[in-house]
Every structure is written in C-alpha cells, then in structure tokens.
C-alpha cells in the first residue's frame, strides 16, 4: 500500500521488521472484525457449547456442537421479580399486526435468538418480536404499549455484554433490524443521518466509499446497530482519536415511552439552543426512549494507516511506551491497546494465532492514521528507534498493508473469543487511573491462586480502560465470592468506573453505587420517572431495583 | 521558533511569504486574546461610550469617555414581569454574612460591574453579590435561598453575549470569582480538575507549563471562568480540532437548587455507569444547577503551530479552500476561520490593523498544530502550492513564530471589538450548512440596503458557525423589524441553529422555537421543573417565558 516507505526505515529497523515478513499468524485465516468471526447474529448457532451455570459467561471448550444447549431463564437464575405489567394477549397481537402487518414474530424458534444474549448468559421468555420499519410505526407501537401497560425491550444487534439487550421476563422485543436506511450523507461535512438499525460495519463501508470513516469501531461491528451503539454509548477502538459519541453524535430522533416523537435530528456541529436533550438518551440503554435515527459526524478517511505490534518487558515499560508514543506520534496516534502474556497464550491455544513477536510479558498494539504516509512512517521510525533503543520495547513488527494490519488487530480483537473457549469466564470492564490499571490484575492473580485457570488483562490503555477476565473450568460460587465485591471495591477505591464502556444493562445494574453517589442515583431515578412514568421501557435494566 | 523550516519552502513561496516580513499590523500593539484587549472585567471601565438604546449592542464610536453612561434597566427595556420571589431583607444579608463572612457585597459601585453585561445591553438591579470560596458555601447559600424563595443569578466572568450572566431584576448574584483553585492535574493523562471560577487563560498557562493545552480557546479567555464556559457549552477557536465540551468535560460537581451537592467529578475518559448527569448542566446556563468544579481532558501541547492568512476571490473559493485544506492538512488542521472584506475594513478603520495580504473579498485564517514542525511545514507548503496554483487563493502570508501568529489571530479575534466601535450592533450567531453560510449575509445586505451601515459575516467556517453582525449609526426599530424574525426564519428554513455557540440567555430565549420542536421545549420545561421546582436558578433565562 505504501511501498515507498520501506527504504526509509533505518537498516537495523528494516532487519527487525523483515524478521516477521512471513504471515504473523500461521494457521489463522483472515478474520473480519466481528464477534466470533463475522456472524451477523452472534450467539445464534455459534459453535460454542456447554450450559451457562452462573451469571457469567460460562461455557465449555467444545467448538463442535451443532447447537448450543439452552441457557437458563434469567428469572430462574437471578433473584428478580416481574413487575406488574400486562401480559401480551391475542388482541394485542392483532393490534400489532394492524400497525406492522407481517412483521409480528411469534414463532418460538425465531424468537430464541432475540431472547438470549450473545454471551448466552441471560434468557428472557418474550412471546413476541416486533419489526417496525419507520419511526411512525415505533410511535404507534409504543403508544399502544403505554396505554396497555405492556413492557418493551428495545433491541439492536444484541451484541451487548451486560444483558441489556434481551428481555428479562416476557417484555415485547422491539427490534430495529428493519430500520436500516441511510437518510442522508453530506459529502463536505461528513455528516451522516441514518435509521437506528443500520449495522455499523455497513455504515463504515458506506462512508469509506465516500472518503470518510465512522468515528467508532468495535469488535461487534458486523452485527451491532448504530442505534444500539448510541444507546449504550459504545467506546471501542477509535475512542482515543475521535472521542466519545457524546461529542460526535450531533442529533437523535427518539420515540418516548408514551409514543411521542422527539425530533432532535439536527446535522449541525454546534447548536446551543436550550438543553441538549439527545444526551439523555446516549448511554441510557433504551430505558428512557427508543432511538430511531442518528445524525453523526464522520471524520475524513485517513490516507495512511500503520499498525505496530510490540513486546514489552514489563507494565512500567508499557506505560512509558505510551507516554513516549503520545509525545512522538502526537496527532496521528489512533489506537494504543495492550494485552498481557496470558492473553497471547489464549489466542494461540484456542484460535491458533501465533505471536508475531518474541514472547514477552506484555504486548502493545499501536495504530497510526494520518494524511501523509511518508510523514507517518518517519514519525513511527523515530518512535520505534526511541523505544527499542531505550529498552522499553524488546521486539516488534509493523504492518502497512490492509491484510497484515487485520492480522495484527485480530490478535487483540479475538481475545474475547479465545476467552469464551477457555471455560467459564468472569468478565469485568473497568476504568482506572492508567498507572494503576494492571495492579488490579496482579492483585487478583495473587488473591485467586489456583482457583482461577487464567486471570488476564487487556484493553484500551490509551483510555484507561481495562478488560479484566478470569476463567475457570466451571462456575464456582467460591470463586465468584473471591471476585465480587472485591473487584468493585478495588475499583471504587481508585475512584474508577465499574463499567467503562459496556454499560450496566441487567447484569451490572446493582453495582452502579460503586461509581456514583446516592444523590446521582436519586436523580437518575427521577429522570426515569419523568420520561417513563410507567417504567415500560427496558425494565430491570441500568438502574438498581428499588428497595 | 522553527528556523530550519524556512529553507524548505519553495523559492516562489518563500518570496510570497517574505513579502510580509515587516509587522503585518502596523500601528497595532500586541494584543492579548481577550475581549477589548485583556481587561479582566470587560464592560467595566472599558473605553466605549454611548448609551445603549435597544436590546442590542449599541454604542457610539467614541473611545475616549472615561466612564460609560448608564445602561437602561432590563425591566424597563423589555416586556418582562418579575416572578414572585422573595426580596432580599436585612435578615438575609445577616444570614449570608454568617455563611461567607466579609464576602457579602452590597456596595452599589461594586455591584455595577456584575449587574451589567459586558456588551452593556442589559442591566439588573441586584442589591447583593455573594463570593463563596467553597462548594460547601455554595451549598449553604442555595439551601438558604431555596428555603426563602430567593432567586439566584450564578455568574462567572460575565463575558456572555446573550445577557445570561447578569440578573434581570434583583436576583442575588452568586459569583464564582473566588473559587479559583486548581484541585489536581495528572501529568500523564492530562486531566485537570479545578474549581469553577478559574479563569480560562490562567488554566491555559497552567497546563501549557506542563506540556498540555486547554481543549477550548476563545476571545474572552482573559476574563471568562471555566465554570461559565461549561455552563454555556462554549465553542470557540479549537472546536474544529478538539470537539465539543460534551466530549472533553469528564466530570462536574454541581450544587442543585435546593443546596444538595451532586458530585460527578470523576477523572475518567470512559464511564458508562448510569445516565451521564453532567450533560444536563453543560450548556444549561446556570438554570439547572451551579457548577462548582470541573474535570476536563487537556490534549498534549502541539510542538509546532503555524498560521496562514489568505485572501480568496469569492466565497465559493473559500469553500473549496476548506475542502482542499481538510484533505491536505488532515490531522494537523486546528482552525479554519473566515472573514469578509467589510470585517477587514472595520478592524482597519477602528483598530488601525492593516491587512497583511492584498485586498480581497474574503480572508481565511488557517491554523495547524502538530507534533513535528518539518512535517507540518511540508503539508502546508503542498497545500499552499495547490490553492495558490489553482487560483482558490490570490494572496497569503504565513506565521510560524508566536508574535506574528498573535498578530494574525488579532485580525480575526478583534472583529467583535471593531464592530462595537462602529455604532449600534445587531448580533447573530447561527449554524448553517456550510455551503449556505454566506448566502444569509448576501441576502441581508440586499434586503437592508442603506438602512445598515455594515453587514458583515465571519466565523468558524470549519464548524458551520457564522457570526453575522449588522451595524447602524443608532438603534432603529425599522431596521430591527427588517432583521427579525427574518434572520431566524431564514436559519430555520435551512434547519440551522439560531444560536450556535452563544446560547440563549435572556436575550434569545424566545427564539428557541426556531430550532427546536414543541416536544423538545416541553421536555426542557419538565427538566427545569424537576431540578429547580421553585425556579430560583437564573430565572428568565434559556427557556421561553411560559404563556
């Protein structure tokens, strides 16, 4: 892609680099950046076996069973009481059929994929799935449900990590799958307006053909919906460069609990007319309204992308590499990810991916995105000379072409998949002061000892976001007891966040108090009561159950 | 500053550049980037004369009067009714004195600067100004005022454009001026936590000494408070590069109307635990709570800054220059500002600043900020070759040293000041689709004819943000009638925003409906009622008066 770059590398660096000219991941086929390898309906028919037996991501290591065994019903596994909503009756189905003819799904086989989350940890028993195509249809449906006191579970691509996207009991599933139209794209400003059900990867392709990129990218891109991304305030891989959706989402159209439509779908970079209502819905996980359309600012497509994959001798060196990198790569730095040695062992063992660099205690993936390939290469060269020369990095490889870039990214992005094949997984997603981020992993490893099979840490170091995962052969109450509330208390002790980017959904709603004070919880409850007085929107999610 | 750059410029460009080696602004002294030249209390003792006679920014061209004449009381000029709040009594003053001994100001002379906005267009008649130092003191004050039903006007640097920062009647002025302490700064992450009354310029200096910059910069930096910046969701000059405060503000501490403290002062890049309450207060102009502390993400200080000042033959060429610029300067572009020929005439006539380039219908100021001076210079050279060669730009000059950069910026930043010396100013701040942005200026010029002295357009083109200003010798109801609601209707017709960055405050609250639908207004009113049921916080601001 940028062949003229090669001669610019200093000779020693070129040797270092060419040491990895053969494919870095022998035995691994090209992988799309999607959960579980590009399945559009993750969790559905995925080749992972074993029954989940805990509130966690638990499965065996088999990858050959043709059909995953049933997941235990959420209402049986968790101490949760159904709230006094109405139950869907024949007359309700008839009413829905009048609003969206032919798009009222009641077939249990079809419903299964929408009742179970992709991690196969929670399972609702909804009897009906609705597939509106327009905002007006969503409005009619919600107005009807509001009048009838029927609970509703809005659902996008169902790729969430915290059980927020599936029903807990028999909530009506309101899917955005057919709301997948681009409404407009402005070729000068890069502002995209689209329906909420557009799949992130398809939007990426759409804007990339027009020389822009989406401001967010995440492993689930092949399945997740932009509406779901916004509803969960997704972070992901481009956060370091393009920031939060709170800055890049310019407008939203939302249907409120009573069916009224709130049209704040502006396409303006700046608008200070009154309170910014769209912010209420970003990250509220479908509990305050149903997002039906999104206006989002897309940055110009970078002309040059490079990925360096480096081995570091310790976490202190990872941190110093990060500081050096910020200073020397500056505005072209677009990702700084890290993973520990156990992560690399897992992707090697379960997915057959080999490390492209010599075995190291830590690995770092650095991505640059810039407008001039030659300049970016020079900056990277200087940086690599510096970190290699000073011993911060002991080995590394660099990719400038699309195929090898994807291969290097796969090492980082497929950790989730490798973990899921390792047994029962206890997942945590925390924000911490960057200098303390790995202490939690080390502490836990010492605390758990042989109780855990693996204790691994990886994540978006540039954002202070650690993905901490613990695996075991099977669910163990004593292991869970050793993990919780320890992890949450440890995080709260550092004034960290117990959910950096995954949200709270159903599974984490009760830990909100570790990161927010009582006054904040009270105001959140008041906002919920204001916007959804009957509580029909995604009940049992985000906010703790009231005492 | 970057002397090694010069030889890299092609010979013809070097000539072009050196044509402006003498100071670009003969006769102009160095100006700080502050309103009216670095006054800490703009509007107070500023050298602008003449009585304001309209709801606008009206004054004569005299710059010699030692004391500005009185501004008409807002309650006399506007059709506004005092709401039934209590009136401050002696016992209240005694109570305040117990909370903040020695910091209860009742001297009319001292109060004057806080009762009148810096544009000298609105004037309250508050009898008391309170200067708390701590959040606890603010909490005690608000709890007291809430119980006593006393209205409160939170005030930062009083640099707002829409009359949001001064009382309308006799509201108690709650100043953040003494809440000016930095609480913490993290030298790796660049996260600054400080009290709300810190002056933006002082924070800039503080973080620049530590190799970071504030993510926002604006003309009023010498006076404005960070709390006020956040409360008004200030945009400014770095928006193009670092985005909205909604993305860069990481946490807030806010005192609610009843005196309770909402501590969401986290210092984390990512935190998805529940609803993001701080967003409610960003841009709500002190009507929902009083911001007492701010946590904000500061980007690394760029190692090289360049400013190019260019002349364009028409607005179509300005737009094409912008597109070319985005493509060729990419990630180093940090500002793209434009001004028309009449703006240049005004800064020349009133401030003695001379154009550094030959007379042109339009001027563009482009700033780059990057991590490697040589690379930035090469990108700029390529870009300038392209726009000069293709005729998009007819003349230009470039500054790489701090002194000349400030001089070029002064041409753009001091337009506000030049306008204020031109007579009665009618000010509009709108967002529009970028390709239509100047049509509004041209339309108005034709519509107003000789009624107006000047109709000028300038602003942040990169953000689609036009500052449209009309001047006349004196206030004229017929001119106002020709402007309004025409400007608002024109903007609404393009789905623009009638307040891009200035907010609504008191003067624009009634035009909110041009940019937001009735359902949004209703929800805003509900939020106000939820957070401030007695309506004591900054009454008569942001939201339209209820029918």
UniProtKB/TrEMBL annotation, chains A, B:
Query: Could you tell me what this protein is called?
Result: D-2-hydroxyglutarate dehydrogenase, mitochondrial
Source organism of this protein record: Diceros bicornis minor (South-central black rhinoceros)
Q: Which cofactor does it need?
A: FAD
Q: Which reaction does it catalyse?
A: (R)-malate + A = oxaloacetate + AH2
Family stated for the protein in its record: Belongs to the FAD-binding oxidoreductase/transferase type 4 family.
Q: Which EC class, in a word?
A: oxidoreductase
Q: Where in the cell is it found?
A: Mitochondrion
Name the Gene Ontology molecular function terms of this record: (R)-2-hydroxyglutarate dehydrogenase activity; FAD binding; metal ion binding
Q: Name the predominant localization.
A: mitochondrion
In this chain, the stretch annotated as Disordered covers 36-69
Report the domain of life of the source organism: Eukaryota
UniProt GO cellular component terms: mitochondrion
Tell me the GO BP annotations in alphabetical order: malate metabolic process
| Pfam families registered for this protein in UniProt | FAD-oxidase_C, FAD_binding_4
What is the purpose of this protein? Answer: Catalyzes the oxidation of D-2-hydroxyglutarate (D-2-HG) to alpha-ketoglutarate. Also catalyzes the oxidation of other D-2-hydroxyacids, such as D-malate (D-MAL) and D-lactate (D-LAC). Exhibits high activities towards D-2-HG and D-MAL but a very weak activity towards D-LAC.
- What are the UniProt keywords, alphabetically? FAD, Flavoprotein, Metal-binding, Mitochondrion, Oxidoreductase, Transit peptide, Zinc
Q: Where is the FAD-binding PCMH-type domain?
A: 122-301
This enzyme's EC code(s): 1.1.99.39
